[in-house]
Structure formats: structure tokens, C-alpha cells
Design the sequence.
């Protein structure tokens, strides 16, 4: 797919002042329009786990009832029946897992989400979602389709320079031969649902479709895992054959092999660059502005990193000077670089627009507690912020209208 030259802002609905799809969400859309933005990026929309993580959602298909502005809105029996008829693959399993009222909540979610999305579309704003590669070990998917998941091993990432023990995520891995035997039906339905809800989806841990780190379930760290081969192009070809073009962003961050880039490019998927990592000395640093590509999404920072200001503050004096950023406003320096990047799409988290420090970061990978809780204060995003962001967006030739 080819992205138009444009810009967007990242903010999950739980970070809105009320934390839901109510009036604050509509006010944010108005602010995005004033700021000349074309995209609103969010995290996965499923029901989060007990720590608030949307990457360990209770369902790969259901929307989170916690996002509802009116959780007691009336839902008729006809509306429930209609929703089930349009979503036959997963609604029965979700109702069995989540109990009475589960489908009525999905009707409410569809009602509120579609209304917000239509409001945004009328103002030139499209939605970017997120598809986690893995599902919860305690969710509806494992309960409903146990044969699709491997036994005895769990997901994670190998040891590296930052984590000597690696990362043991604990999510169940996929029994890929079984998925293959079904024609990847579960994945087709999962992507069908994603494409129904948003205009573009980031695929988390894209490299895991080429090869993934499998850790013995009994091990407490990721040290003694091993690489296993994923389904590769076969899966995405099945999805493409069933659903048509793939409106996806490949999260290709970290230590990436040539095979992952080949898979990304075979389907024309834009990859990612993160400007916090743009200042290393390596000539081949993919995040450095000189190495950005047109078919790419450039971020100032992400939900898994520190904020721009938090990152800059943590650098020593020499490293700060080497960035060439204004110490008074390093966040605007990164936003300016993102806007002038060759990458088709630039995205800045709201925290970077506001110039907030580490106290406002969304997630600290490898730490279960204390994440996903940051919230915007009403009135914190001002007309002045919108005007300045619009000016930078215009300088980068990213205004949609």
C-alpha cells in the first residue's frame, strides 16, 4: 500500500481525560483537525488485562467495554441478533467466556466507536489501530480454540544488550501447522475485524511471523529459548486472498534480519523509524533521517519508549549536544525532523507535543505494574499547540487540506 504524505498524533482513548469514547474524544478530533493532522493512532482496542495492558487483551476480537461512555445504554434483542449475524466467527465464544451482557456491550462499543469514527472521517481524520501478534494466556481465544496454540512453550524475546535475561512475556505461541491446515481462518477473521474497526493497523512484533523466540514454559527467564520459524508470506497471502489489500504497518524495530525486510517489502508494507534512536553513530542506522524511506512511518517516540523530553534529559551533556536539538525544546526539534522526513507518515505521541517528561510515559517494557495509566488533563492541549503543530506539518508538506 502507498500512504499519502501526512501526519498524525498518538493517543489511546484511555489517556483522554475521561478515559473513554465520550465528549473528550470528540474534542480531541476537533483539536487534530485544527492541528492539520490526518491520523489518530491508538493502542489495541480489546479488553485489557488486570494491569491495564491492551497487549494481553481478553479477546483478539472484542472491543473493550471499559471504553464505553454510556455502558448502560439500551440495546435491543434485534440489535444483539444483528451483531451476532454479522460476526458469527467469534461472538458465541466471547459470550461463553465473558458472560451475560457480553454481546450487548459489543453492540454499544460498535455504536460509540462508529459514531466517533464517522465524526473523525468528516473532519479528514482516519484511525490507526494496533494488532498484537500474541493473545492472552487467560483469554477467550485460548479457551475457544485451544488447538491453535502450542503447548509447553511461551513467547518472549532473547537476551540482548539491554536485558541479560531477555523478556519472558508468557503469551501462548501458535501451533502454526494447525493454522496452516485451516487455511489461516483465525488470522483471516482477526484481520477482518481489525480492518472493520480502523483504516490502518500497526502489526506488533512483525518479525515474529518470520521467526520467533520460544521459551520453555517452566523457565522463569527467556535465556534458554530458541528461534523457531514462523509462517512468513503464506499467512499474509492467505489474508490478502480473502480480504484484499493489506492496510498494515509492519513494526520492524529491534534486531531485524533480512528475511523480515523481505517479507515486509513483498507485501509493500510500510515499516517504522523512531527518532529517539536516530542519533547513533552507525552509518546504517535505520532511524537516522538520512536512511528514512518513503514507504515508512516515522515516530518521535513510541508507547514503549521514554518521551522525547524524558529521553533527552537522561542523555549526558555530550550526547545532548551531539543531537543538535534545542535543549529548551527537544520535543519540537524531533517533531520538526519527523515532519521533514522522507517517510510518508509522521506520528508524534501527545506527550511529545506537550513536552512532557518521563512521568508521562505510557509503558516500561518488562514491567507489569504502573503502566498504561497516564491521562491527559482537560484543556492541556491548547489552540497554541494546535497552531504550532499545524505550522510544522505544513512545513513538511503534510497537510491534507
Sequence:
Amino acid at each position: 500500500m502507498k500512504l499519502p504524505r501526512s501526519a498524525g498524533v498518538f493517543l489511546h482513548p484511555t489517556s483522554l481525560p475521561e478515559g473513554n469514547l465520550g465528549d473528550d474524544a470528540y474534542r480531541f478530533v476537533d483539536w487534530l483537525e485544527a492541528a492539520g493532522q490526518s491520523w489518530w493512532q491508538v493502542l489495541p482496542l480489546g479488553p485489557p488485562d488486570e494491569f491495564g495492558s491492551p497487549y494481553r487483551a481478553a479477546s483478539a476480537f472484542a472491543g473493550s467495554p471499559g471504553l464505553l461512555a454510556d455502558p448502560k445504554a439500551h440495546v435491543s434483542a434485534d440489535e444483539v441478533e444483528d451483531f451476532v449475524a454479522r460476526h458469527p466467527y467469534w461472538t458465541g465464544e466471547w459470550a461463553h467466556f465473558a458472560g451475560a451482557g457480553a454481546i450487548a456491550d459489543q453492540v454499544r462499543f460498535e455504536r460509540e466507536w462508529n459514531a466517533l469514527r464517522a465524526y473523525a472521517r468528516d473532519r479528514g481524520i482516519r484511525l490507526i489501530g494496533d494488532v498484537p501478534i500474541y493473545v492472552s494466556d487467560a483469554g477467550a481465544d485460548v479457551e475457544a480454540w485451544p488447538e491453535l496454540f502450542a503447548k509447553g512453550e511461551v513467547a518472549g524475546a532473547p537476551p540482548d544488550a539491554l536485558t541479560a535475561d531477555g523478556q519472558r512475556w508468557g503469551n501462548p505461541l501458535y501451533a502454526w501447522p494447525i493454522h496452516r491446515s485451516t487455511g489461516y481462518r483465525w488470522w483471516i477473521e482477526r484481520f477482518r475485524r481489525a480492518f472493520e474497526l480502523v483504516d490502518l493497523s500497526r502489526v506488533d512484533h512483525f518479525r515474529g511471523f518470520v521467526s520467533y523466540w520460544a521459551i520453555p514454559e517452566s523457565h522463569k527467564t527467556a535465556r534458554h529459548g530458541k528461534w523457531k520459524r514462523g509462517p512468513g508470506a503464506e499467512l499474509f497471502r492467505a489474508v490478502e486472498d480473502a480480504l484484499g489489500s493489506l492496510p498494515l504497518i509492519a513494526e520492524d524495530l529491534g534486531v531485524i534480519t533480512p528475511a523480515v525486510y523481505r517479507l515486509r517489502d513483498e507485501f509493500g508494507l510500510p515499516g517504522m523509524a523512531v527518532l529517539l534512536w536516530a542519533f547513533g553513530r552507525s552509518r546504517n542506522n535505520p532511524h537516522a533521517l538520512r536512511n528514512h524511506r518513503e514507504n515508512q512511518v516515522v515516530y518521535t517516540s513510541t508507547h514503549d519508549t521514554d518521551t522525547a523530553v524524558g529521553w533527552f534529559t537522561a542523555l549526558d551533556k555530550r550526547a545532548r549536544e551531539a543531537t543538535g536539538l534545542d535543549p529548551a525544546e527537544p520535543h519540537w526539534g524531533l517533531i520538526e525532523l519527523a515532519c521533514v522526513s522522507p517517510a510518508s507518515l509522521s506520528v508524534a505521541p501527545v506527550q511529545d507535543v506537550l513536552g512532557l517528561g518521563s512521568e508521562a510515559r505510557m509503558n516500561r517494557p518488562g514491567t507489569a505494574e504502573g503502566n498504561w495509566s497516564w491521562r491527559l488533563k482537560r484543556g492541556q492541549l491548547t489552540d497554541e499547540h494546535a497552531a504550532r503543530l499545524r505550522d510544522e506539518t505544513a512545513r513538511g508538506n503534510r497537510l491534507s487540506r
